[in-house]
């Protein structure tokens, strides 16, 4: 392995450890809520602390990497991931979880602001997609792997501070050493603009809204589903469902890359409600097989068809403003990752989990149908002048 490849894999290792910490506590959400005397609504609020951390960093400090360099942001993000884990080790409760999620959001925002550009600098290649693909693969794997590791340790010994927490601390410390040894070739621009407002190109809103629906579904699986599974004594499997709904989407990405963005997005909007229906039914009935199959289908939509299809469409529409166009796309995604999840948690507390899951499913079906029809009509309108 040459030096450039070694450096790129070192960065990928660091990014994976940053995102691994994000969902590390997911299988313990219900336990934290019970220890703190709260329900699903408060759990969803604590879960959404992540969004409160990541959005301001992405929007208000988008140019920070140009001023201080790439490597300091990655190292800072790794330190924040370790500190967030330590907080939940010392105080295993819902309030500490909210604080930890906020810190992990800040760390992920710092890493997201520079990860792709840094990978391009460390991994010179003729194919501009390769660095982005490596960043996507490493972060997606980390997001799901943390929850899966915690579930594995909970099967061995149930604890509010399982061995996965200590493993993350050791691996993150190792990642800091690896990243600290990487070169940082980007020039420092002392007067680079910090604020980078999102851009919403004409025709982009249906694609952005489809991402809102996708991440609302994955957020519900991470934050609300553990309490539903706990009613059937399946809480320890919630980490595996989180891993499935996030990381298994990587399997479908090579196929999605060969599809037209509109077709990929349309297919994702068809798969998502059907997969959610299977997942919700399985959770209500205590069928682990249905939950995992539904999570796999949802993952194909959330992190395959809708993610790559929507992002490809947005970047094409944004032209030279690709960074701002992507920021607008992810703004919708993170709104979906927070508000619908909090509302569903509130419904679960006041009307029961089955009612909350059904209401979310109906809203998801309506949103997917309207958005899909909008994309079909937009593509048909664009195709008519081309045919003429």
TrEMBL record:
Occurrences of domain Major facilitator superfamily (MFS) profile (ranges): 1-388
InterPro entries per UniProt: MFS (IPR011701), MFS_dom (IPR020846), MFS_trans_sf (IPR036259)
Recorded superkingdom: Bacteria
TM segment ranges: 7-26, 38-61, 73-92, 98-120, 141-159, 165-183, 204-228, 234-252, 264-282, 288-308, 329-349, 355-376
Keywords, alphabetical: Membrane, Transmembrane, Transmembrane helix
A Pfam family this chain is assigned to: MFS_1
Keyword rRNA-binding: no
PANTHER family in alphabetical order: MFS TRANSPORTER, TRANSPORTER MFS SUPERFAMILY
The name this protein goes by in its record: MFS transporter
């Amino acid at each position: 392995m040459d030096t450039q490849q070694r450096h790129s894999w070192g960065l990928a290792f660091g990014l994976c450890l940053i995102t691994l910490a994000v969902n590390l506590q997911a299988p313990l959400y219900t336990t934290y809520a019970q220890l703190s005397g709260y329900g699903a609504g408060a759990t969803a609020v604590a879960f959404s602390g992540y969004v409160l951390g990541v959005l301001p960093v992405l929007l208000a400090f988008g140019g920070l990497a140009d001023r201080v360099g790439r490597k300091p942001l990655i190292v800072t993000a790794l330190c924040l991931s370790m500190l967030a884990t330590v907080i939940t080790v010392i105080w295993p409760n819902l309030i500490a979880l909210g604080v930890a999620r906020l810190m992990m959001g800040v760390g992920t925002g710092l890493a997201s602001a520079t990860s792709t550009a840094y990978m391009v600098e460390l991994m010179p290649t003729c194919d501009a997609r390769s660095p982005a693909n490596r960043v996507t693969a490493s972060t997606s794997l980390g997001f799901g792997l943390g929850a899966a590791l915690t579930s594995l340790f909970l099967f061995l010994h149930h604890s509010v501070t399982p061995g996965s927490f200590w493993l993350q601390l050791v691996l993150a410390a190792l990642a800091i050493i690896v990243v600290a040894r990487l070169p940082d070739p980007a020039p420092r621009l002392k007067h680079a603009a910090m604020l980078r407002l999102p851009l919403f190109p004409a025709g982009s809103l249906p694609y952005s809204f489809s991402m809102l629906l996708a991440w609302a579904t994955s957020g519900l699986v991470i934050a609300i589903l553990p309490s539903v599974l706990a009613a059937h004594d399946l809480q320890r499997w919630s980490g595996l469902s989180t891993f499935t709904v996030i990381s298994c989407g990587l399997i479908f990405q090579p196929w999605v890359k060969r599809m037209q963005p509109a077709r990929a997005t349309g297919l994702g909007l068809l798969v998502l409600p059907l997969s959610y229906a299977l997942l919700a039914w399985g959770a209500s009935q205590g069928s682990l097989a249905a939950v995992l199959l539904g999570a796999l289908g949802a993952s194909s939509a959330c992190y395959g068809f809708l993610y790559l299809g929507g992002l490809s469409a947005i970047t094409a529409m944004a032209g030279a403003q690709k960074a701002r166009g992507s920021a607008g796309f992810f703004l919708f995604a993170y709104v979906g990752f927070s508000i619908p999840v909090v509302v569903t948690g509130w419904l679960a507390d006041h009307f029961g989990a089955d009612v909350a899951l059904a209401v979310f499913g109906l809203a998801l079906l309506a949103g997917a149908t309207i958005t899909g029809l909008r994309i079909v009509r937009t593509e048909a309108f664009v195709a008519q002048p081309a045919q003429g």
